[in-house]
Amino acid sequence: MTSYQYDVVVVGAGPSGSMTARYAAMGGCRTLLIEKRQEIGSPVRCGEGLARHFVEDTKLPFDRKWVGREVKGAKIFSPNGTELTIEEAHAGNEVGIVLERDAFDKAVAKEAAKEGADIWLKTTATAVIKDDGWVRGIRAKRLEEEMNIEAKCVVAADGYESQVGRWAGFKTLLKAGDITGTLQYRLTNISEGHDFPDYCEFWLGTCAPAGYIWVFPKDESTANVGIGVSLDRLKNRVDIKGYLDRWIEQDPRMAHAQPLDMVTGGVSTAPPIKKSVGNGMALVGDAARMIDPITGGGIGNGMLAGMLLGKVLSKCNDKGDFGEAALMEYERGWRAKLEENLYRNWLAKNKLVTLSDREF
Question: Are residues 197 and 336 both part of a single domain?
Fold first, then answer.
């Protein structure tokens, strides 16, 4: 079996993984970023919203190619028709830019490549290599080639129920009540109303049990229109489509709308993970449950944490120490910036899901 050696191997080329690889490579780590799919950023599985300050905070070069629409803020609708408008500065981590997510993910990976990171596509992690309490690398399959990739640190950036994290001994499995099933259409030929297309919209209540419906504008007549419903409120995953279709049918703006694509998926709405580092191992982004439990958005948090992790990995490389104690600088850093808000929103989510339409 072929073996490869790197300082850092990052599993998953979403925004958090690519940002980690970028800053690790920038700091001198020989870095490999692997992605199981044949194309970074595709298929798109999210609403594509991002607060613009994350672009500035992580020093990502701004490029109109990955901007679908810039919005003024958010509108939140309760079941009784009450409308709350929140301007961009106070509207949360998912409001400001509606991305072209496939182009955006490629742009972040491009910055990692510029700093010297290697990128392999169609490469799937199949196991972690462990030795005496340390993670020493991963086993992987690239097309038909099986290999060992030895690394001083493995970074799991492989999503909300991280397999790589679980193989390494981290508790990444979730309860049904902490997973939200999602379905989204990209609809076009949408009419004006509720200040569309200048605001992102969030619709609450029994239209989306223990979740919400979103409308994120992409241009003057096109939007991502999606729904998230807690899995413990569903008898069948197919029910998600019924909830969204019924809502679309009653919105007059959608009377002549037509779909351009449809995607399904799921997001974690759990509290932050208890532990994100070990000897030769770190979790980042959705794998570390950095998704906002109320909104289900995690792009910005993952980017910020990826930058922090990449910088810490560079320090570890300089010192020749990738042990848990050395990696704790990353854990302390992301918790200081993100944990309080994530945990507070998880508690708020658990309260919100108990409310009836009349109580909203």
Answer: no
What is the tens place of the pLDDT at every residue in 182-208?
999 999 999 998 899 999 999 988 898
Q: pTM here?
A: 0.93
Nearest in space to 312 (alpha carbons), one of 103, 3, 27: 27
Tens of pLDDT, residues 217-259: 999 999 999 999 988 888 776 689 999 999 999 999 999 999 9
Residues 6 or more apart whose CB falls under 8 angstroms from that of 119 comprise 13, 21, 32, 33, 34, 35, 40, 109, 112, 113
Task: Based on the fold, state whether residues 112 and 27 are members of the same structural domain.
Answer: yes
The residue segments making up the domain with residue 153 are: 2-61+102-175+270-352
Q: Is residue 359 part of a domain?
A: no
Last residue of a domain, one of 236, 251, 268: 268
Name the 3-class secondary structure at 27: coil
